[in-house]
Design brief:
With 167 residues, the protein is an alpha+beta fold. The chain has one domain.
């Protein structure tokens, strides 16, 4: 009887493991700034199962699935509007470059250009991608300039954040 009880407990724990493995909702944004050229690349990465519930509000006229090209286009435009970047006080306008949908992984790339030739002193990031969708959504932003990386984390309602680079 004890062996049966232990077997049932082990089976229940194995069934619960996939649920426990993904408790939060998060994404990663990587900003790379080339001080010599002023070139800026921004890559946003998400899990599709975190983004698809947001498509109801992001793309109200499309199907709430990444299988719908209209929903993907609306997502790209939404990310472009909801991500704001300043380098040394200069707003960087970003253009969509590429979107890669691979299984549960989403990568959306943008690029822009700021003033070339100067040292990167401050970078200000403001974003709020999916308000009201996941209360525990976190977006980590890694900002890389001249071989140095700084990291900030955004949660729903977070204000803009500024990172300082010193040499």
């Amino acid at each position: 009887m004890r062996r049966l009880g232990l077997s049932l407990m082990a089976a229940a724990m194995m069934l619960a493991t996939p649920t426990l493995a993904h408790r939060g909702h998060g994404g990663l944004t990587v900003v790379v700034i080339d001080p010599a050229t002023g070139g800026v690349t921004v890559t946003h990465r998400f899990a599709a199962h975190d983004v698809e519930p947001a498509l109801v509000t992001v793309a109200p006229d499309a199907q709430p699935t990444l299988d719908d090209p209209a929903a993907v286009s609306a997502l790209e435009a939404h990310l472009d509007r909801r991500f704001r970047l300043e380098v040394n006080g200069e707003r960087i306008d970003l253009d969509h470059e590429e979107t890669d949908l691979a299984g549960d992984n989403i990568r959306v790339d943008f690029a822009g250009t700021g003033t070339a030739g100067g040292a990167v002193r401050t970078v200000r990031v403001d974003l709020d991608f999916f308000p009201g969708v996941h209360d525990d959504q976190e977006q980590q932003v890694n900002i890389r300039a001249a071989g140095v990386t700084r990291t900030v984390v955004f949660r729903p309602g977070s204000p803009a954040q500024t990172v300082v680079f010193t040499r």
